[in-house]
From TrEMBL:
Substrate binds at D114, G115, S116, S117, Y222, K253. GO terms for molecular function: fructose 1,6-bisphosphate 1-phosphatase activity. The keyword Hydrolase applies. It catalyses: beta-D-fructose 1,6-bisphosphate + H2O = beta-D-fructose 6-phosphate + phosphate. Keywords: Carbohydrate metabolism, Cytoplasm, Hydrolase, Magnesium, Metal-binding. Its EC number is 3.1.3.11. Pathway: Carbohydrate biosynthesis; Calvin cycle. Mg(2+) 1 binds at E92, D111, L113. This is Fructose-1,6-bisphosphatase class 1.
Amino acid sequence: MTAISPPGSTKFQIDLRRHLRENEEDRDLTRVICEVADASKYIINAIRTGDLGLAGTSNLYGENQLALDVLSDRILRKRLIHSGVVANILSEESEEIIKVGNGGKYSVAFDPLDGSSLVDVNLAVGTIVTIFEGEDLLQSGRNQVAAMYILYGPRTSLVYSTGRGVHEFAMNQLMEFTLTRENIQLKPSGNIYSPGGQRNLYTEGTEKYVSYLEEKGCKLRYSGGFVPDINQVLLKGSGIFLYPHLKNKPNGKLRLIFELNPMAYLIEQAGGKASTGRQSILDLKPNSIDDCAPIFIGCREDVEKAEEFIARFG
Ligand code: AHG
Ligand code: MN
Ligand code: MN
Ligand code: MN
């Protein structure tokens, strides 16, 4: 049953409601998604015209923050804090969880600008968002109520799921998001591989797996941006992205709460799989806000094959 939209809804909100959870007039969830969508318009402007330099500060992960990281973070934080429906916020660029304290129904974690170091060479970047009900942002990814990303590429697109399939919107000339794809599904196996991290630091299992992919003729597609790299696997319905455990980084590089969980949620909603190489990403229980994990994510059979190599060779 399609939820009836309140009067004055925009086309985006009406299209969003086509897939919100059954029989749930959940305006607050729609509100969070719309706030992120609106914030993206200011982030686009920042990317196009903003300062490409360093902010002079670093984040919890020891990364030198770019002015764009800080500005994108501020744009998103402000919108979510003033939305009235968000209780707690966690950002890649915040040192701790931000308690908004207005009794909001949802808590939101986000990577305000993923791949920010790619903007100065004009490659695609993105915003990644995960949404939980309640105040706890250290829940396992299995408990997410929604996840989404915005991809700032040649086109600006928004991909989201609230647990009823994965759907894509594209931004038109009026900067409105219009529905372009519904119920995106991955094939069981694909022919693209997107290998993150330094190959010389791959463990034996990952090395043997990637060689297996190459021998079977898979095409290497890696931009260095998590959002465009995942978006390619999702929209082509084919392939696998990996940022594995490395000899010097047993937990890989990508952050569990605001990078891996939202993408794992979306890919699983599209019929794919997301694994550390040994277990499902969505079953991990974060111990702290800066947890990282290795990831093999994409077509189900391709991820299962990776798990076989990791089980045998480490
Ligand atoms: P962020 O810009 O949010 O810090 O994330 C960058 C991440 C992700 O976009 C990508 O998959 C990964 O860094 C690439 O890492 P390498 O540069 O080590 O390949
Ligand atoms: Mn960063
Ligand atoms: Mn990131
Ligand atoms: Mn980032």
